[in-house]
Amino acid sequence: MTENAGVPPSSDVPESFLQMAIQWFPGHMHTTRKAIAERLPDIDVVIELLDARLPGSSANSLLAEMTQGKPALKVLNKQDLADPELTDAWLAHYRAQPGTRAIGLDASVAGPAKALVAECRALVPKRGGMVKPVRVLICGIPNVGKSTLVNTLNGQRAAKTGDEPGITKMEQKIVLASDFYLFDTPGMLWPRILIEEGGYNLAASGAIGRNAYDEELVAMALLSRVRHRYADRITARYRTADFTAMTDEELLAEVGRKRGGLMPGGRVNMQKAAEIALNDFRSGAWGRVTLETPDEFAAWWATGMAAEAQRLEKKSADRKKR
Ligand SMILES: Nc1nc2c(ncn2[C@@H]2O[C@H](COP(=O)(O)OP(=O)(O)OP(=O)(O)O)[C@@H](O)[C@H]2O)c(=O)[nH]1
Ligand SMILES: [Mg+2]
After folding, report:
1. For residue 187, which atom of ligand 1 is closest to its CA?
2. What superfamily in CATH does domain 28-184 come from?
3. Which DSSP string do the residues of 231-297 spell out, in sequence order?
4. The model's pTM
5. Where exactly are the structural domains of the chain?
């Protein structure tokens, strides 16, 4: 098993394993946190990119805390890969929160992305003109599409992009107009991911460094998440018969068997099967899929917070005993 790997919240998994969650907060994220904190006093609007396939899990609690009080826009990016019905449900969920503006986006499409500029200007009507340019911070988890959005807004490839987390290494300022600046930032997570399901969804989406999780476990968690809501897609992609009785592990083996994950002798290479399932999800080969609803995420959140409260209580009791 790889460093920091965890175990999915699957019924196949022993209870004792469930305490281990996926975590990834490498040194460059500490640097990013500092850089964002230093930049914030000069920022007028914060655009936080969420992944439309996992809006709750991809919302950065650390960024929320740091940017509190700033006019903000939530962008549910990669909406072209997400279930449109659930994107609508998430947008309604966010828009019902006081002072929150949310929109769905495919960062590579120019028209809707450019409408963001007008939205930002509307949020800070007193800014504009050379003396008081509108300064917009673009932030969010790794690999969510921040630099792609910057490039689309800018009409050219000013920022490096790529399909892995950690492409942007340093803050970059892009002058969109003489009175409108964008700041692209490196992707950032938060020091402790308290919601276990959230950690698995983040890893499945490609937001977490490959050495920080076990692909087989993440692929099983992913299948366990989608096997009911999108059963027909799984059947279509892997030409499986009824898989209701299969465990997540058996279903992953079936993925390997059907898509080139067999080893000589006919055994399934489970690592290969996991890579196939993860790539299929990430590339949209299952069609448009969303991993969580607002209600599901709220329930995970409540469980995560209760577990954390218990942990802190135990820690404090242990300290008193000493
Ligand atoms: N399908 C789809 N892919 C997107 C979208 N936005 C970005 N991507 C892809 O997602 C990957 C990551 O994009 P980046 O713009 O590099 O992401 P980032 O948030 O800047 O990533 P870091 O700099 O690593 O934090 C790239 O392969 C993009 O082509 C989108 O709206 N839809
Ligand atoms: Mg980037």
Report:
1. 25
2. P-loop containing nucleotide triphosphate hydrolases (3.40.50.300)
3. HHHHHHHHT----TTS-HHHHHHHHHHHTT-BPTTS-B-HHHHHHHHHHHHHHTTT-S--S--HHHH
4. 0.92
5. 28-184
